[in-house]
Design a protein that fits this description.
This protein is of the alpha/beta class. It is built from twelve helices and 14 strands. The protein has three domains: 109 residues, Arc Repressor Mutant, subunit A (Orthogonal Bundle); 106 residues, Periplasmic binding protein-like II (D-Maltodextrin-Binding Protein, domain 2, 3-Layer(aba) Sandwich); 94 residues, Periplasmic binding protein-like II (D-Maltodextrin-Binding Protein, domain 2, 3-Layer(aba) Sandwich), CATH 3.40.190.10. The strands form four sheets. Strands 6-5-7-14-8 form a five-stranded mixed beta sheet, sandwiched between helices. It has a five-stranded mixed beta sheet with strand order 11-10-12-9-13, with helices on both faces. Strands 1-2 form a two-stranded antiparallel sheet. Helix 5 links the parallel strand 5 and strand 6. The structure holds 2-phosphoglycolic acid (PGA). 2-phosphoglycolic acid binds next to helix 8.
């Protein structure tokens, strides 16, 4: 449905690959892609389809989520606004892009074709954004970074330290669950990701920059706090644990650790945040397993204790991750170098008594 210099359908390509030319006007901000129809672009004639970049971006989001509501949330728009744009896009193309079967929407054949092209356009836009960022250099660069919820305990401090060294840089920090991080990597939709367990199967460059020990926590008065010698794993089996959600890096590491040792853990309540786990443990709802990086305040104030359990801590690492072959902007390169260099660690490393350096 496109032409690379000549077309049957009337959608013309901007490049000599498969990206449709979109008749667009750029308001002013390249990195936000706030685009509107340009009145000033000469009308190429009746054989051309008038598709705006905004419509394509909206379409790509609806097609990816197969939901108008989720696309509206992602793009901070109202659902009627998204529906209207999609309707106008369908009118411009002259074909339906979605069909509703029962309660769910599906892509029509034309929709599937269009999805392919809209993804391609979005990729080109991101690439252009990266090239523009490279031309601006580190000092005026903008860094998009997505981090695991657990890494948030140190990520802001790292960014603050980095910003002091590179004044003029700006950041967008996304703190999210592992599932979304995997999506960001798969869509190549962020500059860098910080996570504890890089996925297999994607062509990634994952570099360890800091240790991430997982420890067992209990309220300070717990009978297992302060034992004369390490608590055997078999004793831990008798306790109930408050655990993180299934997809979290912490949960995966914990399950692997116990399975490898033939220990069956009694999992009680499941919680999606470290804060909730710590509060539940403090309230006596069970023991917990968390990264030592989440515990700085509780250890300082004596609200939680780390239990000396045999074979603990579970030794893991934090990784800085991006798609292999991705063209990193100067600011992303500088931040990656900052993480991998020794200077970042003192900002991230909490004091955990009895654990040695972590
Ligand atoms: P998470 O942390 O448990 O918040 O996903 C990342 C990790 O430790 O792998």
């Amino acid at each position: 449905m496109h032409e690379g210099g000549g077309s049957e359908s009337g959608v013309r390509t901007m490049y000599n690959d498969d990206s449709p030319l979109i008749r667009l006007g750029i308001e002013n901000c390249l990195c936000c892609w706030r685009l509107q129809d340009a009145q000033s672009i000469p009308d190429p004639g009746p054989s051309h389809v008038h598709v705006t970049l905004r419509q394509l971006t909206l379409f790509e989001s609806v097609a990816r989520h197969l939901s108008f509501t989720r696309a509206a949330q992602e793009l901070h728009l109202s659902q009627p606004a998204v529906s209207m744009q999609i309707r106008q896009l369908e009118e411009a193309i002259g074909l339906p892009l979605f069909e509703k079967l029962g309660k769910r929407i599906h892509l029509t054949e034309a929709g599937q074709e269009m999805f392919h092209y809209s993804q391609s356009v979005n990729r080109q836009l991101r690439e252009a954004e990266e090239v523009m960022a490279a031309l601006k250099g580190v000092q005026r660069g903008h860094l998009r970074i997505s981090v695991a919820t657990t890494a948030n305990y140190f990520a802001t401090r790292l960014l603050a330290a980095f910003a002091r060294e590179y004044e003029g840089t700006s950041f967008a920090l996304e703190v999210t669950n592992r599932k979304t991080l995997l999506q960001r990597l798969s869509d190549n939709d962020t500059d860098l990701v910080i996570m504890g367990k890089p996925p297999e199967g994607l062509d990634l460059l994952a570099e360890a920059f800091m240790e991430n020990p997982l420890v067992v926590i209990a309220p300070p008065g717990h009978p297992l706090a302060d034992p004369p010698e390490p608590i055997p794993l078999s004793r831990i089996q008798d306790e109930t644990f408050v655990v993180r959600e299934m997809d979290s890096g912490t949960r995966i590491a914990m399950e692997r650790f116990f399975t490898a040792r033939g220990v069956r853990l009694k999992a009680g309540m499941e919680m999606t945040s470290n804060e909730a786990i710590k509060q539940a443990v403090e309230a006596g709802l069970g023991l917990g397993i968390v990264s030592v990086h989440t515990l700085e305040l509780e250890l300082e104030t004596g609200r939680l204790a780390i239990l000396a359990v045999e074979d603990f801590p579970i030794l893991r690492h934090w990784y800085v991750v991006h798609r292999r072959g991705k063209r990193l902007s100067p600011v992303a390169l500088a931040f990656r170098g900052f993480l991998l260099g020794a200077q970042s660690h003192s900002f991230a490393r909490p004091v955990a008594k009895g654990l040695g350096p972590v």
